[in-house]
Amino acid sequence: MADTTTGVVAAPAAATPARVSTMLGGLATAEHLDRSDLLAGQRSGQVGSVHSWELVTAVDGPGTRMTTFLAGCPLRCLYCHNPDTMSAARGVPVFADDLLARIRRYRGVFRATGGGITLSGGEVLQQPAFARRILRGAKEMGIHTAIDTSGFLGRNADDAMLDDVDLVLLDVKSGDEDTYKAVTGRTLAPTLEFGRRLAERGIETWIRFVLVPGLTDGDANVGRVAAYAASLPQVTRVEVLPFHQMGRDKWTELGMDYALTATQAPSAADVERARDIFRAHGLTTY
Ligand code: SF4
Q: Ligand 1 centre from 74 Cα, in Å?
């Protein structure tokens, strides 16, 4: 997922980003299942590993959204502000039907605000069967759907799943292969490939890019992301997200090494400079 903690995303228009964190509030867990039933449920998508959910406004897509953070991610982003979502084992098993029942309760809010649901993480495409069920169920209720993904596991999204996705928030963490590897520990190509597939299918896409001083903020690197975004006709927006240190304590609590202790947040001028590079490619950028 992108790094979009409250107040970090520059909201479109005059809207003020807001998050109401609930963790798993109100959701029953499937922790009572024995191991074999749990595995069977996960395989079928009836059970997913969920970290938390929250209601958000002006982030994670249009309108008021119920964003659900799934647990488990194949990337290891140096700036991850939710490192506790990296491991699927840290999530809580939740029945898809229970999550859908919760989503149903907010239909009126979604309708009134032009919002919907967003599946984030962790990495939503690490649990494709569960995601497929939630997205299908939401579409059956007439709810707008978004997924927030790095695209690294894009091949896990079959065409049927993508038919139920209205918007993809595609996190392009670098335009330069070596930098991508340094930031995430993984390769860039699957992300680029997934974005092109979304173009073929005409699925609206917002590109998200985290600006990290000394890591991703080189003009050439930003320019590569911008050129890629501009090559995709379905991209309607780019969000440049300034790096921040809000996740640092979680890394410490989890006993994980945090490499960006000395890295400062970019200045407002640096962020605007990066946004201008995107704008120069004709992209609507926030
Ligand atoms: S490690 Fe995974 S969850 Fe964390 S920022 Fe990267 S893609 Fe998102």
A: 8
DSSP state of 88: G
Q: How far apart (Å, rounded) are the C-alpha atoms in residues 108 and 212?
A: 38
Number of residues in the chain:
286
Q: Is the CB of 70 under 6 A from ligand 1?
A: no
| H or E stretch covering 269 | helix 268-280
User: Is 1.20.1250.20 the CATH classification of the domain at 18-280?
Assistant: no
d(CA 202, CA 262): 41
Ligand 1 proximity of 123 Cβ (cutoff 6 Å): yes
Please indicate whether residue 120, judged by its CB atom, sits closer than 6 Å to ligand 1.
no
Long-range contacts of 220-225 (CB under 8 A, 24+ apart): 220/176, 221/174, 221/175, 221/176, 221/179, 222/175, 222/274, 222/277, 222/278, 223/175, 223/277, 224/174, 224/175, 224/176, 225/172, 225/174, 225/175, 225/278
pTM of the model: 0.93
Contact criterion met (CB below 8 Å) for 230 and 209: no
Question: pLDDT by residue (tens digit) across 166-201?
Answer: 999 999 999 999 999 999 999 999 999 999 999 999
Domain boundaries, the chain: 18-280
Residue 22 banded pLDDT, cuts 50, 70, 90 = low
The span from the CA of 64 to the CA of 115, in Å, is 5
Q: What is the DSSP string of 35-65?
A: HHHHHHHHHHTSEEEEEEEEEEESSSSSSEE
- Kindly compute the dihedral angle of the four CA atoms of residues 100, 202, 192, 242, in this order, to the nearest 10 degrees: -70
